[in-house]
Amino acid sequence: MKIDLHTHSTYSDGTDKPSELINKALAAGITIIGLTDHDSIGGWQEAIDSLRPGISLVPGAEISCQTTDGISVHILGLLFDSSNSELMNTLEKTRENRHGRMEKIIARINEAGIDITMNDVLAQLSDGATLGRPHLADALVKKGVVASRDEAFTQMLHNNSKYYVSHYSPTPEAAIALIKAAGGVSVIAHPMASHRGRTISLETFGSLIDSGLDGIEVDHRDHSPDEKKQLIALASGSNLVMTGASDYHGNGKLNSLGEYTTNPDEWDRLESRANARRVITV
Length: 282
Ligand code: AMP
Ligand code: ZN
Ligand code: FE
Ligand code: FE
Hints:
Layout: E1 3-7, H1 18-27, E2 32-38, H2 44-50, E3 56-66, E4 72-78, H3 85-111, H4 118-122, H5 133-142, H6 149-157, H7 172-181, E5 185-188, H8 202-210, E6 215-219, H9 225-238, E7 241-244, H10 264-271
Parallel strand pairs: 1-2, 2-3, 5-6, 6-7
Antiparallel strand pairs: 3-4, 4-5
Bound molecules: adenosine monophosphate, zinc ion and fe (iii) ion (FE) (2 copies).
């Protein structure tokens, strides 16, 4: 068993279509793959249609959240019922708000004398995809302003940049409650990825656990060995499931499929916390 629970497709800021993602996962020996596009379940059907014996799909989404003290948090929602309208409406509101937010970021970049338009950015977006800063990064690469997505983030688009604008997002506590009400399970993604910006306090962790958090993504390339140790202690102390995943984005990031995986026993524990069996197999 090789289990990778956190990946992105062209339905958000990944560069592989869901069908390509499933093919590459099979080739990489992955047996259970989670599709977790940002604030979207748009890729589920194509992924389901591409399944073959040997690989199962964990349907999911990576929900953009913001704490009341303004810290960005990503909550992976897995195995939820996609007919739950409260959860679907929240995802839709976030996706829509990302457009106005992008206009604001672009205005700030224009003020600095760099010529880039909303149309340049939308030209980088696949049909139906969640708009994000990586698409702006791609447009800046195309214009020759920067050489790569990574350079765009390091120089211009990181969370502490003067160009940064946030978008509507639920609190992580609200997202966890919505996922639970939809019968799914929630895992906090890369909770200690400090190079992205401020990370949550132990107090906030406690609040997420009180809200029903099911698991912690421990094994992730953005965590140092020491950070992993802290997370393992936290998970063990609170009976939370520990996961590992690649956070694969195709060519959009260096992360390779299956570079971190989830232990099968931990996966069983996580899956059993959903209110129905929703892993998809053909
Ligand atoms: P947004 O959702 O618009 O706030 O953009 C955040 C997304 O940008 C995250 O999901 C990351 O996957 C992506 N991202 C952050 N830093 C980098 C980077 N250095 N290179 C490529 N993608 C990045
Ligand atoms: Zn992303
Ligand atoms: Fe994330
Ligand atoms: Fe991710």
